[in-house]
Structures are given as structure tokens and as C-alpha cells.
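A reminder before we start the practical. When you read a complex entry, don't treat the lines as separate problems. The point of joint prediction is that each chain is placed relative to the others, so the output describes one connected object in space. Small molecules and nucleic acid strands, if listed, are placed in the same frame. In the example below there are two entries. Take a minute to note the order of the lines before looking further.
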Amino acid sequence: MSRQHWLTPWLFLLPSLVAVIGFSLFPFVNTVILAFTNARTIGGGRFTGLDNFGRLLHDPAFWTAAGNSALYVVVVAPALVVLPLLLALLVRRKLPGITFFRTAFFTPVIASVVVVGLIWSWLLDTRGLVNGVLQALGVLRTPIPFLTDQWLLILSAMLVTVWRGLGYYMVIYLAALGSVPRELHEAAQVDGAGRFRRLLSVTLPALRPTMVLVAVLSAVSAFRVFSEVYLLGGPAGGPGGADTTLVMLIEQVGTGLRGDLGYSSALSVVLFLLTLGLLVATSRLDRNEAAS
Amino acid sequence: MSGCHESAVPGTQRQERHFHGAQVGRYLLLLLVLAITVGPFLWQLSTSLKGLSEDIYSVPPSFVPHELTPGNYARVGEAVPVWSFALNSLLVAVANVVTNCVGASLAGYALARLRFRGRGLATAVFLGSLLVPFEAIMVALFLVMRSLQLNNTLVAVVLPGAISALNVLLMRNAFLALPGAVEEAALIDGANAWQRFTRIALPSARGTVVVVAVFSFMYSWDDFLWPLIVLSDPSRYTLTIGLSYLQGTFVNDQRLIAAGTMIAVAPLVLLFTVAQKHFFRGVGEGAVKG
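Here is the predicted structure of the whole assembly.
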């Protein structure tokens, strides 16, 4: 189809190109440039070479934040690869009422992270439901400080992330399960393979690409965690800022009164590179495992 | 579904009973997961309906309010302007739906159906921007809004997500999947690109347009980090940052916070009940491309 003015396609593309270049690519290039300057919100901005990156290597706040974000990936991503798969296997069959359960399990996905964060900070409060039930059952005498202890807080945030992701990845797995060839199952059954055996030798190998996809998606989004920790632990990131994540640190350094644009841009560049590295590493899981 | 032939295999009495037991176990598990996923919402709903005279911290906790009262929904509006926050969220979400549907289908059509020099490059620009995480550019994005003198406005909340690259690529794939014969016939009849787009292609791809609309609404209504950065004046707050602000100021009244969260979640539950299949479809398509 070519009988058109040369300008026509560009008119179709104009709004979205303006949006993508103006609000994604240009800010990205600007972030990279600012990372090599000492710019602040109130002005300034001289080229300072690698100073920001040197400062970052000696900044304990950076290492705390990077460590927390990495820990988040290590715990959340495997949980989100395995648990939604189990859930998908549970709701796969067409039992009476199964559509209701599938729909209900998806509900946490549609709720805002803020709603979810507030619900869980009430549930996990020292006077909240979880402690109340445990105390009523006689399991506990003093409430568990889920939201004020450094380690319990980040674990609680992870729990919230996993809880909210369950339904989303369950739907991805369900779609993949639907496309596992039926003949494979039937052949295995003829060969005398039991249900568990078929799960291991037929279903899981067929799902491997989907599991890698879920690993990539959940790892990358876990590394960028912000809201869960912010809402459960407060803007400072838990007791003494011990639970600050990398994105929280960028927000604290780059916005508001501190407005240290140069340094926050250097942190952003590091975030970008680490995310990209994580993306490449997790997408290679498939290849390495297949090779070994 | 592939796992359900066991029931078709004729079995002995013992096997039948075994199958029954497995099914009961399955339903028990389903109910347990139901309690874990939906229970927290119900507990929040219950808290929001408890009156001031009821102890919300009682041990053991009481799940059903002794006396149902909608009073907290009125009181939360007195504590913070929750209804004007909700209106701000609604304006932002509706704007996002319109800009994404219009912008993404225009661009998706050009990338899928029009031949021109630079098409590969344009597609690469959209694909490349998917690799840039929002969190890595949010500070620079704030500077863009400041230089446009838009910071602390709802327009600034809308702009970064106004036309997402993912939606452009979703629409492109939807148009690519349509059979081209009708459009070629229209071309021979002298229809121009705009006519082919509006009269033939767009009506056929409306399923994907609905997916784009539903997800644009959800992401915009639920967004937290960007409005938190770009809005500073409480009168401009959207519902999500308004609620986190409410938590900061009235930590002691969980009934009010609970009422606020219910107000925030209600529209999406409504949208979800009406447009369920589009949510599930969107997860599938978004996952493959994202």
C-alpha cells in the first residue's frame, strides 16, 4: 500500500513519537548527562567526570539500598515463579465454580499498590488482625513487630508484593497450561505414567519458557520496588532508613529539598544498568539450563 | 484442559472414592487460597463499617461489625477532601484512556499498515523505550515538567503515561493480525489512509482497543510514585497519594483509612466485574510483549 503522501505516516506517528521521545528517551539521555555533573535543583551543573560514581562506591546508603533491592529479587522472584504455577495447577480443571475462584484470585492485581499497602499495614499492625488472631489462639503473648523491625519489615513488604503478584502470574501460567499439547499427556498415560510423573516429565518441561518469562518479569519488577516498603515502613524506609531500596534512595536524593540531581542521576544510571543486567541474566536461564 | 481424562477412565469403586476425596481436598485448598487473597479486602471492608463505639482492636478480633454504619465514609471526607482526590484521579485516568486509545491506535496502524522510509527506526524507538525503567528517569522527568512549567498540575500527572510504547506495539500487533484483503480492495477503490484506518482497520481491532483502555485506566488510577513526585499541593492530590497522606496524618483511626481504601478500590472492582475477560486477555498479551 503505497499511494500516499510521504507525510501521512508521520502524522499518524506524531503524537506517540512526541510522547515517547519527550517523556522517555530525552529524560533518559538527560539522566546520563546529569550523572556526570554536580547539578542541583536550584541550579549549578558543572562537569565533574566520574565524581558521582566514586562517591556512590563509598556511600553506605547506596550499599544498603542496593543490598535491599537485591535481596528483594532473591526472595520475591523465585516465590513468584513457583507459587502462581501451583495456583494455576490448582485452578486448571473445569470444576464447578472454578471461574469464581480464578476471578477472586485475580482481585489483588487490580487493587492499587497503595490500597494493598494500607490494607496490609493494618493487618500486620501490632494491634492488627494477624497479631490479634495469633494472640487469641494463644500462640503469642506479645505481638510481633512486623512493621518496626528492620528484617520483619522488608519480609512483610515482600509478602505483600508476592500476594499482589500471585493472580497476575497465575493467569500467564493458565494460558501456557492450555497450550501444552494434549497428545503428550495421552502418550505418557498410555506408557503408564502417573499424574505426578506426568507433571514432572510433560507439563513442567513444556512450561519452561513461561517460567523463564515469569522469572524475568518478576525479577525486574522486584528490583524496582518502591511502594510496598514506602507504605509499610514510611518515607524514610523503615527504622533508621535500614530498609531503603534503590528506587527509594533515588527519590530521596533527587527530589524535594535535597534535590541533588547529579548524584541521583548517577544512582539512576546504576539502576538502569543493573536492571538491564538482570534482564539479560534471567532471560539466559533458559539457554544455560537447556545446555547443561 | 489436559488433566481431566481421569474422570473419563472407567474405574473401580475404590478409584471413584479416591477421586472424590481428591476433589474435596482441592476445594478445601481453593477455599484456603480464597481466604488469603480476598480475606484482607473483607477485613478492610469490615473495619470501614465499624462504628466509633466498637473496639476495632479486640482480641479475639470480630469479623462482623456489631452495628453496621456508613459513618466512616462521611467522616473520611471531613478529614481529607477524599472526594476531590477521587475526582482528580478520575480526570487523570479518563485522560489517559483517551490519549492512549487514540495515540496508540494511530501509531500502531502506521507501523503495521503504511509503508514508508524510517518505519523500522520508528518501531525500534518504541521497542527501545520499553527498556528504560520509569524509576530510572523519574527525576529527569520531573525536570521536563518543571521546564514546561507543569509541575504540580494534573496535566503533568497524565503526560508521561499518555501514550505508552507498550500500547503502541500492542495495537501494531493487532493490526498486523488482521487480514489485509479488505484494505487492499479499499485502496484500489481510492480510499486514503485515514479512511482505511477509521472505517476498516479500527472497527476490526476494537477488542485490543478495549484492552488498552482498561489497562490505561487501571495503571493510571493505581499509580503512586509519579504523582507523589510531581504533585506537591494537597488540593491537586490524586486518590492514591491522598490516602498515603491520610495514613500519615490520622494513623490512629484505622476506620477512616479503611473507608478511604474502599473508596479507592470500588471503581476498579466495578470495572473488573464488567470487563473481566479483557483483563485476562491483557495480562496474556502484555506479558508476551513486555
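Discuss with your neighbour: Chain A has one domain: 35-291. What might explain this?
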